Amino acid sequence: MCCSIVNFDINGCNYKLPVVYGTYEKAINISQLRENTGFITFDPGFKNTGITKSSISFIDGEKGKLLYRGYPIEQIINKCSFIETSYLLLNGELPNTAQLKYFSEKIKEFNFLSQEIYQILDKIPAFYHPMGILSSLTCILTAFTDSIQEEEEDMYFNLLAKLPILSALTYRKKVGLPTDYEVVSKNNNNLDYTSNLLKMFFSVPKKSYQINPVITDALDKLLILHADHEQNCSTTTVRLLGSVHANLFSSVSAGISALWGRLHGGANQAVIEMLENILNSGGNIKKWIEKAKDKKNPFRLMGFGHRIYKNFDPRAKIVKKVAENVIQKLGISDPILELAKELEEIVLKEPYFIEKKLYPNIDFYSGIIYQAMGIPKDMFTVMFALGRLPGWMAHWKEMRLNREPIGRPRQIYIGYKKRNIH
Ligand code: CMC
Q1: What pTM does this model have?
Q2: Quick one: which of 128, 226, 280, 298 is 20 to 30 A from 117 by CA?
């Protein structure tokens, strides 16, 4: 039954709070609660707090469903490219042919990097974690682009072009490949977004880069699957920065830093490290599962569990299929994939994981695909960031258009009462 007001009593006094309805969810608007009652709400980790109204994506965690602008992820993955998906997230509708051409061409206009960024990259030690480099360089882009003055639309094109270049250069520096424009970016404008990305990563001097459609297709699908996931930690970070009118580049830079965390995007690196550890220590899966169940042990099975999904993560099902397809088509025999499948099978029958509704998430199989592409482990989360970029930007854009207030939670202070220095 729909109601527009909820009634509740505190110490015998009756209060009324308005109800907010979305397409699927309903919420109690508590913005006047403190003013009217003296109480605030207490919700560590925002487990039950809606911070905005958004029309970008929707997760039904109980059913394991994900929609981008209303379209199920299973349809998007079969019918759209990453660049069409980016357009959809940013603009609300899928592009027609002319819109798609314009969008793709505009991104290409920004396919370059200023000399100063090359010089800065040159000074950063190659051993530094790629996520730290990417976050720093993304923030530094602010210095070369006045994103407050710049045509707003151009900022999105600029970042869609720049993040792949920064990521590719970070990778190339790490593995000792030349980073000069001639090898990395020159003559790439005839390539689609994902082929350009791969070429920027892997091209070598004096050799024409051969596009492998299996790899391009797999990467495009991974980018789509990562493109948005409503109010996750990094997206909320981007929105919070936007709420204080930080510019797009510094907001996305903060999102990259948030994504780096091992409980968020950093899990894809942690999963492969965990699987390698299991394999190298004799492959005793049961032992590692016991470790994950042990309350005294902080170890968690990486790639399992999700704040919202209490059923299969629909993205994980797709990633698993993509991983199997890539490994088979590239003719690789991967003991890590076999181990991952075995681990998943055992975990899904374990009462601990069944009771807590812990299923494989997107990060469980994605690293296997990155590894098959030749991407090093500490670059996995960079690939996640490349996929998440249109989602971050769509949320930033939405919150600006809605003129959302500054994001500023309250707290329950538990420190000393006022005291004096003697
Ligand atoms: N292994 C073992 N136990 C787990 C796991 C796990 N992977 N995940 C959750 N639990 C247990 C946890 O110990 C807790 O038990 P209890 O209720 O007895 O204290 C219970 O399940 C609920 O966990 P929580 O940490 O309160 O749940 P959350 O919703 O706050 O956390 C999560 C979600 C993703 C942080 C968590 O499941 C986790 O740490 N997973 C491993 C890291 C991972 O794979 N992260 C990628 C998430 S998907 C991609 C993304 O968002 O970037």
Answers
A1: 0.95
A2: 226
